Amino acid sequence: MYRVSARLVLAVAIAANIAGRSSANDDEIDPFVEDTSLTAEFIIRGQSPAPTQLRVAQGMSPTPDMYYTPGATNICPPGGSVCLPPMDPYQGAPCTNPCSWQPFHFGLFGEFIYLQARNADVPFAVPQDGIVLPGSVPTGAAGVADPGFSPGFRAGGFFALGPDARVIATWTWFSSSTDTTVNAGAPSVINPLVLFPGTFNAGFTAQQATADYDLEFQFIDIDYQVVADCCNTYWWGYSGGARYARLVQDFNASFPFAPPDGETALTTSSTFEGVGPRAGLEGERVLFPSCGLRAYGKSSASFLVGKYQSTYLQTNQFNGVEANTGLKQDRIVPILDFELGLAWVSPREHVRISAGYLVQAWFNSITSESWIESVQNRGYDPGASTVTFDGLTARGEIRF
Question: Mind listing the pLDDT tens digit for each residue in 292-331?
């Protein structure tokens, strides 16, 4: 645009000069008549043929316009030190190296996970002064069944479906157990926090209570993953697929009341099974190319349609079954996963080892505590709770 404007100004000035000279002396020879360079083949961009009065402005041989010429490469002015890239906003940086797993047809992996369940603990008993009455006060810390860190694993493999896509199958298993005992020194007694109201009275005395709690989950994931972008120092992709999940919470408590009341036991269970769609993002960034160290991150969201089945059974040494009920509820349970860590790959990337931190959340869930409280309140509506798992993960992968 600026080149054409300058030529227009120059052409107007020269044309005015020629007109003035012609009016002064009509016999003078036009110095531009014999100039063979002023022909109609020199045109202003977008016009053909060029106007006569602007031929002077086109007297110079046009130089290629690197910003608009098709197939232009870098713009390097003669003798200059700055070389500009072509003005193509859709042309990304070249990728000279393939993505981490692109050259491989299939791979196998095993993963160790070390997690703790949170918001899943169950308070079951508390020491209390004297007999169990409304006016009694606690005299010690409550006994809580709280699962701690426990090991689990993942295992699976992938199969390539081209240079930028693959199918991944993963099986995940995790289990956590805990045993807890709470004692009350005389004259204090144990106040049972999980038994059905009305099945025990002020004469029920015990100096000890025990509880065990087992929590387990399993996943089967089938994902189709695609590379969205990759270059020498990074890659990221997205995935879609399906997930099957099973979550089991088994809680048991025992209260050895003194004779003639006898021992009373409580057994509860809450199991969820569901299946649904799953989507995720994953990426990797090279930190130190010389030693193969990288940072990675991945996240996913699952929306599982399934059913919770919960049971509550209370028995006494002499009375037999004192309370027995159950509940089935259809629910949609969203699950979010997030993982962040570091990875090392071998020089030819056939071996990959990683370690990171994993967080997982189950929303709209039923916990053992919420189920027990709903039975005690005779409402039989446990509401919606969130169970989370977090901890460390270490993974080894072989690719062929």
Answer: 999 999 999 999 999 999 999 999 998 999 999 999 999 9
Whether this prediction's pTM lies above 0.85 is answered by no
Extract the runs of DSSP E, i.e. beta strands, from 62-198. 106-118, 122-128, 143-145, 150-160, 165-183, 189-192
How many C-beta atoms surround the C-beta of residue 145 within 10 A? Answer: 26
Distance of alpha carbon 105 from alpha carbon 339, whole angstroms = 25
Q: Which residues make Cβ contacts (< 8 Å) with residue 341, sequence separation at least 6? A: 295, 296, 297, 354, 355, 356, 357, 393
Strands 263-288 and 293-316: antiparallel
Find where tokens 């100004």 sit.
9
107 touches 398 (CB < 8 A): yes
In this structure, are strands 106-118 and 189-192 parallel, antiparallel, or unpaired? Answer: unpaired
Q: How far apart are the first and last CA of the chain?
A: 56
- Which token pair is 215? 């929590």
Q: In this structure, are residues 214 and 197 in contact, taking their beta carbons and an 8 Å threshold?
A: no
Tell me the residue type at 133.
L
Give the CA dihedral 317, 318, 320, 325, nearest 10 degrees.
-70
306 vs 277: CA distance, rounded Å:
12
**CA of 341: how far to CAs of 65, 238, 358, in Å?**
48, 18, 9
pLDDT in tens, 331-379: 999 999 999 999 999 988 899 999 999 999 999 999 999 999 999 999 9
CA 3 from centre of chain: 53
- Given a cut of 90, whether residue 158 has pLDDT beyond it is yes
